[in-house]
Amino acid sequence: MRLLLVEDDDHVAAALSAVLGRHGLDVVHVRSGADALQELLPGAPGEGACGFDVVLLDLGLPDQDGFEVCGRIRRTSSTPVIMVTARADVRSRIHGLNLGADDYVVKPYDMGELLARIHAVSRRAVAEDPAAPGAAQEAAQGAPGAADGTLRLGTVTIELPTRQVRVDGAEISLTRKEFDLLALLAQRPGVVFRREQIISEVWRTSWEGTGRTLEVHVASLRAKLRRPALIETVRGVGYRMSAQGA
Questions:
Q1: Which biological process terms from the Gene Ontology are attached to this UniProt entry (predicted)?
Q2: With a threshold of 0.90, does the pTM exceed it?
């Protein structure tokens, strides 16, 4: 697995590269956002020299904010991005995921946790192809009211074949995992999905550390749909889609 490490602290990068290397990862280290984009973006001098499976992106870069770098990567590439930062507030997490980050790890972190997240995002990474099979399409099989591939929850419309979501007729932009999560819950309004079940279906992993990522994705969905009550929290169990719709 080839990994691009974007980290301006050479000591941190050296230690991390050594550990990742011992676990079989081929690490390329760059110190700035500009260098990262040079490695990743189409048409850049370094493009094609090495294809990356995962990007580890520090947010505190010397030339530009990591959020900006992530946004530019995501506009042209589907390479999984894991943000690694000391910014632990929920707003930063949601902002990073909205920009297209696949995961968000807060420093200091456990190395075993980081390795598990790297392997998890690499396993679940798929091309951004609406026709490709995935959790959303699988969730739709047998779903009530989805004979034409469309789910309707009040004024929220979910078009599974095209992976488009509309609220009051206006299309909204969701990340890959936000859409998969929404489609899973929407297949059975009123039915409680356990956290472990959601993580297994959407993230394709049983690793418990994904739970915090699930919470952030739910919060982001509620904000984007502008229907906070549409996804209900069942304390100690999981989540369900409101049977009353939006």
A1: regulation of DNA-templated transcription
A2: no
